[in-house]
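Researcher: First entry.
Model:
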Amino acid sequence: MKSDMDKEKSAELTEPRVLKRRSYRGFRKSQEPFPLDDARRQGNISQLAFLLMGGRDPAVAFLNTENTKLGGRPLVIATASADGYAQVAAAIRASVRGAPS
């Protein structure tokens, strides 16, 4: 005689599983698109940091850590304006040369 557990297992093996359909809302765009110039500066400063600082981890750590000399997070500063980009790029180059940033 089969136990209830055995009956459940055999039912699982013989009956097809019915998958519940997930509701899909799709990708929701932000209210305002990211300005193209800002996106370019963000991509360029990320690439510069990656190439000069020796890889992803040091670049991400530098760009996302508050920097008192720059007055904020380098990624935010570099993305906001061309002047900010120049300041952060100079700080990255200075840190690679061993000078204080």
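Researcher: Second entry.
Model:
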Amino acid sequence: MLDAAADIGILEVSTPDCVANDFDGEIVALNLSSGVYWSLRDLAAALWRDVTSGHNPEAIIDRLAQMNSNLAHESHLVIANLVNAGLLRRCSGSPVALEASETVARAEAGEVAFSVESYEDMKDLILADPVHDTEEHLGWPVIRNDNGVGA
């Protein structure tokens, strides 16, 4: 688990357990192991794009702290939540220059919103086994209860 005092380091998408895509500026990331999916918009989406392209999260947080301590705090919370949710993980690599950071540029332009939401409403379907969770008379998917019978 990543906490407030932790050295974050360079991050990458936690493949193969996480898949993510950018839909018109919104990042949708899915943890295939937990079945939870996340929506990242505004500065949270920019932060995702920055850290998954090699920007050092700590350098971004430090720069945001020079502008607004709340932005720095929020960005650290977003990163910690994404790491703890299994969507991002530490990796080795050299950081990209901070000057190219979308998060910093948007914050300098006055943007302050980090929009992060997680959803568990499709968890059972995401975690279902489409090969083995099938019953001819019931169709697919059949979510089995503790007795092995379709719910």
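Model: Note on the second entry: The first helix runs from residue 43 to 52.
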